[in-house]
Specification:
Blueprint: E1 8-17, H1 21-31, E2 36-42, E3 53-57, H2 66-81, E4 86-89, H3 95-104, E5 108-113, H4 117-123, H5 132-146, E6 152-155, H6 160-163, E7 171-173, E8 191-192, H7 197-200, E9 203-207, H8 216-229, E10 234-240, H9 244-256, E11 260-265, H10 271-280, E12 283-286, H11 300-307, E13 312-315, H12 318-324, E14 330-333, H13 340-349, E15 351-352, H14 366-373
Parallel strand pairs: 1-2, 1-4, 2-3, 4-5, 5-6, 6-7, 9-10, 9-12, 10-11, 12-13, 13-14
Antiparallel strand pairs: 8-15
Helix pairs in contact: 3-5, 4-5
Amino acid sequence: MQEIKKRRIVLASILKPVDDTRMYEKLGRTVADAYDVTIVGQPTTASLRVDNISVRTLPRINRLSIKRLLASYYVLRVVMSARTDILIICSSELLPFALIVGIFSRVRIIYDVQENYAMNIRHGNAWPRVVRPFLAGAVRAAEWMSSSVIDHYLLAEKSYAQELRFIGGRFSVVENKAVRTARPFGRPWPVKMPQDMTASGIRLLFTGTLADSTGVFEAIDLAMQLHNVNTRTTLRVIGYAAKSDVRTRLKELADNHSFIRLEGIDLLVPHSKILEAIEWAHFGIISYPRNVSTWSSYPTKLYEYLGNRLPFLLINNTEWVNYCAPYSAAVTFDPENVVVHELVAEMTNRNFYTREPNDVFWDSEAPKLLQALTHVR
């Protein structure tokens, strides 16, 4: 009997590594049983060995580089040479390229919307203030123009369905929940802090993108206040900082405060390193400052900490606090009014994860992704 040939899917991003958590671990591995998958992105130091997934690495690209503008041409070569049936683009700068592919080929196109990019540019500080309206307008224009060739949208946040008018009704909400580990690092529930935690020092953790907008400096400030109470407290900061001024500030802080340990910073960090750090920590920190571009979204680390039963210090975002409350997973803090001794007492004496977290794992999202692919057959 002749074997049925699998359809080919290419997932592509310009700046994300080929082992990006969402692009590779979640989207790629979910569809790998039913499709031949190729992933295009930045190089990684991780070893990737999964049947039906091949990777194509782009030349290393700086955030501000002419190579970034030329990278779409390389993606086009991969899409054509792989005889792609479905293209999933995972970054907004590939939208003009998607428009070309959609007009001149039979490739079906899915846009994985991981951020409200135009809003982030307008209200963030990644770009100089004077150019933000123009860049945000250019991104939104590209999204509207390419909507004529996008067959379906994957939305990483429920809120995008109301925020993004160009998607029409062609979308599926596929949230960025945590990949289930074999066991949550042996943490039983309820989770009780070790009796010697205060004596040996509280191990704090900040993971993910390192930027003003993600609250890394708020996390460091909080850690300093805790360190003033207990000098054995340590903070591990692990992730990638795209902006040179952020890297400089972080390195200066680490040089002046030996309890701060930096990992990655100017290099993309494999997700396995993040998981190892979650296993090491007593508490994570989620400290996004109030900003219209992030306040209604759910950080990926929130799902990861919940999924791995890591207690965490959570900034007072009402929606996030209410989401975590049933599991007794987080200690809430107000960055403008931290009462350190009360915070330490709660961290030390509370029982965490008195109820097993549910609806935080990728298991609930994988069927939604597979269903979404039926819209582009």
